[in-house]
Amino acid sequence: MSKPVVAIAGRPNVGKSQLFNKILGKQISIVQDEPGITRDRIYSECVWSGKKCLLVDTGGIEEDEGDAVKSMSQSQVRRALEEADLILFVVSAVDGLTPDDEEIANIIRRLKKPVMIVANKADNPKLEDSAYEFMSLGFGVPFCVSALHGISVADLMDEFFKQIEYNPEDDKDEPSESFPKITLAGRQNVGKSSILNALCDDERSIVSNVAGTTRDNVESLVSIGGRNFLVTDTSGLRRKGKIDEKVEYYSAIRTFHAIEESECVILVLNAEDGILNQDLRVAEQIQKANKASLIIVNKWDTVVSKCKNKQEVLDQKKKWTEEIKSIIYFLNYSPILFTSAKEGTGFGALYPEVSKVLSEYHKRIDTPIINRIFREAQEMRPAPSFKGKQLNIFYACQTGEAPPKFTIKVNSNKLIHFSYRRYLENYLRKTLGFIGSPVVFNFKNNKEEM
Regarding predicted confidence, which is higher, 178 or 248? Predict the structure, then answer.
């Protein structure tokens, strides 16, 4: 990474994620008055007075006590601290100096990195005065802030930007809004984080068989086939009855928001389980958001291991494809890939498929061609009459892209039956493709303006 990296670290529940969100001016990390909420390391670009850095929110540093997920979370923290140019060591002015703070100070000290100690929750002068006890940790005078109320956060930003080197020339190859945004979406434990790690060739997300390991969205710049993409790993969705915690609720909201913000959504299914109701919920959200999409059937190695020969593997692929197109019929235009993130197989086709659906999502067609296609469709299969009236298409043109939008002038839009709309869409796709992309029809009466 060429931008300087500033990592926020400390024990659980001192307000690291709250400070992260306050500095960025938006809600990115999940904030809950409960330790252990943040597990992955969460990156976001921070801009202040014309300078930039990558700000990293980390999970709380604590003993893993044999907990596998907690152990991986601690690994994520260590990786974030090792790559940091500056560490913001957050402590609680309310709690005062604790033995855990002293243990964390020993860990950070061994890294030999620049450190600023930040005493959070300093909401009044009395707490600010008591915060001087943190000087005994050896990182200088503590910087007192209240992330909750925004007290002295701007001053903190002024100070930490003074301590890091920033070169505007380093921004040229960094992530920007021009990179296509891809979201990995699906229910819990289908292997989204494993897929992201396979694409990054790095342990960017925590991977565990424990459902619900990823809670925040994790965004990474990924090079696929020599082209850069911003790929977001989302937290998986549970059954509606299971979303009874605020954490799960906000994780679901962030998943839906990531889908809304992306250009292409990769729906990840689990080959071990088949298609479940939660898969349909995510698929419906993709359709509702009108995003380009493709479908990955992950953990395909578990299916292959049960097959005796190549023909049985092909038969299983055919069976899965038919089930997907039957059950998730409203995304039947989406390409289907079979992968094993565990074994790193099946990803060779991912770049061409992603590039294809993005190209189709932004495709524009000349008006004469569109008019010819709709005229042919109507001639081959006229619309059924309704109350003695026949639908007549006068004119059609493309009026938008991402997704492709078509305005169609007719004698009466009340004569459009959903089955004939579907026929026109199928004919359009048969002729022009639009693989992996939704298409939007807007029928208008002939006398209406475009």
Answer: 178
